[in-house]
Amino acid sequence: MRPDLATALAEPLLSLDAASVHFGSVCALQPLGLTLSRGERLALVGPNGSGKTTLLRLLHGLQAHQGQRRLHRPLVAAMLFQHPFLLRLSAWRNLTLALWLRGVPAPQRAERAQRALERVGLAEMARRPARALSGGQQQRLALARAWALQPDILFLDEPTASLDPSAKREVEALIDEFARDGMTLVMTSHNLGQVKRLSTRVICLDRGRVLADLPTEDLFHRTDLAPEVSLFLKGELPWT
Ligand SMILES: Nc1ncnc2c1ncn2[C@@H]1O[C@H](COP(=O)(O)OP(=O)(O)OP(=O)(O)O)[C@@H](O)[C@H]1O
């Protein structure tokens, strides 16, 4: 690997230190520490209710918590949800409005919106009502909106869970391209095939506890994983 690339990959973006989350008497996340570095593609996996979304929100800075969350530099972040939140406006207006809300000056808004639509293959759909697009197109529009903000980190909560196989492939391919361009990813997923294809690092959660934090390759190839992690992997088969 080129040394400059290695350095860039190791640049820490944000850290958690003894961070935990409670909802009343429910402990959704036990105290944990981690550092996310530029260029990482982190997947959060685990059974329902294990704390994936809570950890995603905590990393994003949306979640009240105990302990510390520290940014190592100012960061631009964007979030993609399982069901894209789109306004009853054209695809184009959904994009330009998001750019306006982030304070992007008017002359740049149109250019960025156009590039973003082209990037996700929706340039032809600019004037269409966003909510009349197919599920896959809506998710691509949401990706365009995220990409247009030029985020350091893209947070994705089950980004393809409600899509058919072909739309899922398209959305996955775009996420992969964004990451190859240098965007840092943090995603939750129940699809281990997707985790294998898209991530470089995996955190396995169970009942709010981190069972494992390891390179994705190790998750699928190591034979000395904690028994709960092996059970989880078996339970989630098949992965495609
Ligand atoms: N706003 C909330 N109020 C109360 N409890 C909550 C709230 N959000 C999450 N929880 C609880 O915190 C725990 C972790 O929830 P979380 O949504 O993070 O799990 P998850 O792993 O993302 O689940 P899933 O795979 O079903 O999306 C669960 O016990 C959940 O019921």
Automatic annotation (TrEMBL):
Location of the ABC transporter domain: 13-232
Keyword Ribonucleoprotein appears in the UniProt entry: no
SMART domains reported in the protein's UniProt record: AAA
A GO molecular-function annotation: ATP hydrolysis activity
Top-level taxon of origin: Bacteria
InterPro entries, sorted: AAA+_ATPase, ABC_transporter-like_ATP-bd, ABC_transporter-like_CS, ABC_transporter_ATP-binding, P-loop_NTPase
Keywords: ATP-binding, Cell membrane, Membrane, Nodulation, Nucleotide-binding, Transport
Family: Belongs to the ABC transporter superfamily.
Annotated PANTHER family: ABC TRANSPORTER ATP-BINDING PROTEIN, ABC TRANSPORTER ATP-BINDING PROTEIN NATA
The protein, known as: ATP-binding cassette domain-containing protein
Organism: Ideonella aquatica
Taxonomic lineage from the root: Bacteria, Pseudomonadati, Pseudomonadota, Betaproteobacteria, Burkholderiales
